[in-house]
Amino acid sequence: MMNNIQITAQEIPMPSYSGSIIDYALKVLDEIKRNNWELSILLCDDRTIKELNNQYRNKNEPTDILSFNLGETIQDTYLPGDIVISLDTLRENADFFKIPQDEELRRLIIHGILHLDGMEHETIEPNEPMLLLQEEILNKLKNQHIIPPGGES
């Protein structure tokens, strides 16, 4: 059986690189040896993610990523849940950390998938096991780019 990734965009145009997001997420699932996953990724703006963050986490502020765990199996297909990524905050974070938007997007996809796989972190300290695994996968897939060079906004 295979993994399947659905990608949608809300309040923003679908990026030209959306197919590469799907390819990358599939590679991450292969890295953590998950099969038969039906995963949903929503790309949005800060206003949309702020509303979700406020509604579900009582935090009235935008964030870079939210993971909504479902964790149900239907006819041999695992529905882990949804990942929501704000491309506005992604751009701000990439600028702040002085890294390419492509690297930040790859990190967020890994982060969201690890959360949906049941991993958690108490802090953002780099020695957290989930964050160590995240960086290990990011490094292992370092040649797999999503946003083409010059494609950042």
List the helices and strands and how they pair.
Blueprint: E1 4-10, H1 18-31, E2 38-44, H2 46-57, E3 65-74, E4 77-86, H3 87-97, H4 101-116, H5 129-140
Parallel strand pairs: 1-2, 2-4
Antiparallel strand pairs: 3-4
C-alpha end-to-end distance = 37 Å
- Could you give the order of strands across the largest sheet? 1-2-4-3
Instruction: Please give the count of helices.
Output: 5
User: Given the helix and strand composition, which structural class is it?
Assistant: alpha/beta
Question: What gross morphology would you assign?
Answer: globular
* Helix/strand order: EHEHEEHHH
Percent helix range? 40-55%
- What fraction strand? 15-25%
pLDDT < 50 runs, ≥5 residues: none
Mean pLDDT: 94
Describe this structure in words.
With 153 residues, the chain is α/β, with parallel strands linked by helices. It has 5 helices and 4 strands. The chain has a 4-stranded mixed beta sheet with strand order 1-2-4-3, with helices on both faces. The longest helix is centred in the C-terminal third of the chain and has 16 residues. 29% of the residues are buried. The mean pLDDT is 94.
